[in-house]
């Protein structure tokens, strides 16, 4: 399960493209179907039986808190689950009044965070939503209720179950297929049985010749192979194809033949052209040797075929995504965090589009710029993007759009914004960008006028020395001015942050937090997330470690996933400790708290206050404001 509020776009893109080529294609989202089958009164009944059996020999004080709460208030959970699901699907807004009473839902461990925030703010829900934000208050409480039930499944029914990371540890950069293979041949539990039943129902209805499964992230791999396993057993004539982001990054050196017990073909990178070639082969028109970017098994050996002369489909020619077959009225609009920017990822149903294939910058040293999905830049013009927007509005009735580019190209963004305004097309949209200086206040206002409500981009290490080392192409001062331009235009800003980059000292990490504190205090950025740096074999750090003073420790005999790679840094730093402090500080900042504390306050270890001007960001913004005031005076003269 990738998101519960909107379908992942890969199947919609491929469905639209293949239908234009004349193929009979249908799509299904088994993730949302699975969750909505589990979270029913009948599903909870079956879960209770499993939980009671699993914890039969435990005393009450030995039970995990969420399990104890579930068993003690089971009737209430069972009574509430169906109405809450309907409310989160937007089908019963009146229930909000009962939910906000705090007497309707059983409140398990997921609600404890509210108590912690209320110590600092008083009534945290009143602080976040005011008197009239009943629907949003209820949505947040209902989301916490769902979180508790997901933890019940994880701790009492299926240890691998999480909303966005199902069995992730079995797949993420795991050089061996052993863990996944054992799970697939192990005891079949309640979740897998439910998934198997859903798969078989669709196979019986559609009787497909080919089943394609997209695997965007490591947490999708186990579920994908369980689907493939069910298809092998129920419909052995159906050919099974895997693809997607996880495959593209992790399985580029695949050698383990056992995965082909469950699938027939594995495709790398963009699927359009390889699928067309594969279908020609399955029609008997091409030999296997003519397949393109495709793994298969032959006489016990894993083979990969690639045709260098075969060009990919241009981004302007891939067509418009098609959502037919996906249950658009069944997704859950969640409010996971009270921060208004952070919640956008899980709240609302977004049509997904890309302005361009790949990244127009392709220099960041932490990024997989050697891979096709980053390194091959190919844009579609504004006219094409707006036409696709209009087609999707007509099909889905939804006017919300999330542009999922690696970094949306500014010239296409500005042209699209002008075209939307000229044509009077009303949409709400957001996407990923680079915080580059081309985003002037005037251009940010143009984007806002066209419907842009939020952007996300990488500030990463928030250190000018390290930004230069990673070839990010921005400075902290520049990011401050660009993000404030967006913020002043009424556009929410999210920053991706990073710690543990090669040669980053503990003092530099604390200094980065001080910059972030000032940026958030001055409302340049509204939310952010700290990621721990990971070296990958496809990035400049992984390919030229000597330039970054690191020593790589590649796994021996990697026959399955191979992407993240262990390394030793020339600089010694306790990144585990630093990460805890960074995340604690950021959590408070995103709730408007803790700005008065110096950056070292949040860490378990004593640090000096960073030698950063306490008005660094304010001065950077004032410098820009001064320039903007002088220009009109000169023009008037």
Verbal overview:
The chain is of the alpha/beta class and 637 residues long. 43% of the residues lie in helices and 11% in strands. It contains 24 helices and 15 strands. The strands form four sheets. It has a six-stranded parallel beta sheet with strand order 6-9-10-11-12-13. Strand 10 (428-433), helix 18 (441-449) and strand 11 form a beta-alpha-beta unit. Helix 18 (441-449) crosses helix 20 (476-488). The protein is globular, with a radius of gyration of 25 Å. The model is unreliable at 625-637 (pLDDT under 50).
Question: Topology of this structure?
Answer:
Layout: H1 10-20, H2 30-38, H3 41-54, H4 65-72, H5 74-88, H6 96-99, H7 112-121, H8 124-129, H9 134-156, H10 178-185, H11 190-206, E1 210-214, H12 221-234, E2 239-243, H13 245-250, E3 265-267, H14 272-282, E4 294-298, E5 301-305, E6 351-353, E7 356-357, H15 372-375, E8 378-379, H16 382-396, E9 400-403, H17 410-423, E10 428-433, H18 441-449, E11 452-460, H19 464-469, H20 476-488, E12 492-499, H21 506-521, E13 527-532, H22 540-543, E14 550-553, E15 566-569, H23 575-589, H24 616-636
Parallel strand pairs: 1-2, 2-3, 6-9, 9-10, 10-11, 11-12, 12-13
Antiparallel strand pairs: 3-4, 4-5, 7-8, 14-15
């Amino acid at each position: 399960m990738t998101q519960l509020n909107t379908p992942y776009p890969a199947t919609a893109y491929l469905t639209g493209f293949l239908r234009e080529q004349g193929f009979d294609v249908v799509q299904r989202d088994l993730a949302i179907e699975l969750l909505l089958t589990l979270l029913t009164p009948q599903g909870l009944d079956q879960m209770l039986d499993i939980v009671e059996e699993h914890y039969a020999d435990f005393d009450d004080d030995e039970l995990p808190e969420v399990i104890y709460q579930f068993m003690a208030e089971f009737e209430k959970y069972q009574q509430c689950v169906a109405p809450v699901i309907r409310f989160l699907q937007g089908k019963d807004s009146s229930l909000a009044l009962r939910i906000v009473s705090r007497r309707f839902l059983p409140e398990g461990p997921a609600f404890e965070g509210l108590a912690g925030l209320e110590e600092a703010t008083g009534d945290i829900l009143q602080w976040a939503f005011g008197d009239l934000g009943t629907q949003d208050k209820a949505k947040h409480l209902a989301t916490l209720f769902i979180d508790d039930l997901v933890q019940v499944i994880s701790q009492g029914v299926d240890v691998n179950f999480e909303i966005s990371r199902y069995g992730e540890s079995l797949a993420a950069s795991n050089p061996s297929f052993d863990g996944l293979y054992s799970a697939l041949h192990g005891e079949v539990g309640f979740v897998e049985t439910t998934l198997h039943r859903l798969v078989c129902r669709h196979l019986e209805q559609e009787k497909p010749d080919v089943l394609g499964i997209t695997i965007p992230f490591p947490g999708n791999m186990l579920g994908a192979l369980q689907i493939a396993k069910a298809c092998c057993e129920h419909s052995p004539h159906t050919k099974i194809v895997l693809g997607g982001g996880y495959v593209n990054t992790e399985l580029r050196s695949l050698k383990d033949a056992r995965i082909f017990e469950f699938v027939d073909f594995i495709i790398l990178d963009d699927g359009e052209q390889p699928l067309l070639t594969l279908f020609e082969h399955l029609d008997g028109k091409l030999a296997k040797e003519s397949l393109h970017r495709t793994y298969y098994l032959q006489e016990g050996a894993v083979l990969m075929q690639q045709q260098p002369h075969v060009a990919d489909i241009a981004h302007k020619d891939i067509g418009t995504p098609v959502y037919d077959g996906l249950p658009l009225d069944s997704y859950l609009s969640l409010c996971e965090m009270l921060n208004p920017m952070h919640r956008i990822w899980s709240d609302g149903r977004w049509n997904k589009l890309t302005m361009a294939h790949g990244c127009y910058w392709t220099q960041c040293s932490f990024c997989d710029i050697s891979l096709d999905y980053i390194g091959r830049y190919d844009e579609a013009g504004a006219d094409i993007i707006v036409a696709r927007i209009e087609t999707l509005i007509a099909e889905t009735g939804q006017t919300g759009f999330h542009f999922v580019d690696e970094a949306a190209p500014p010239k296409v963004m500005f042209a699209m914004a002008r075209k939307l305004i000229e044509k009077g097309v009303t949409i709400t949209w957001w996407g990923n960008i680079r915080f580059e200086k081309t985003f002037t206040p005037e251009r940010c206002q143009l984007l806002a006028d066209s419907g842009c409500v939020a952007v996300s981009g990488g500030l990463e290490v928030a250190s000018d020395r390290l930004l230069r080392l990673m070839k990010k192409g921005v400075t902290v001062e520049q990011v401050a001015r660009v993000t404030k331009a967006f913020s002043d235009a009424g556009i929410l800003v999210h920053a991706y942050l990073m710690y543990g980059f090669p040669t980053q000292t503990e003092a530099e990490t604390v200094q980065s937090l001080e910059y972030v504190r000032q940026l958030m205090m001055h409302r340049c950025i509204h939310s952010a997330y700290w990621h721990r740096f990971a070296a990958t074999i496809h990035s400049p750090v992984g390919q030229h470690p000597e330039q970054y003073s690191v020593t790589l420790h590649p796994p021996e005999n990697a026959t399955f996933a191979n992407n993240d790679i262990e390394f030793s840094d020339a600089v010694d730093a306790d990144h585990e400790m630093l990460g805890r402090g960074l995340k604690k500080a950021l959590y408070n900042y995103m709730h408007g708290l803790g700005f008065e504390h110096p950056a070292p306050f949040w860490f378990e270890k004593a640090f000096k206050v960073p030698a950063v001007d306490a008005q660094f960001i304010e001065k950077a913004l004032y410098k820009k404001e001064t320039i903007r005031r002088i220009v009109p005076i000169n023009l008037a003269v």
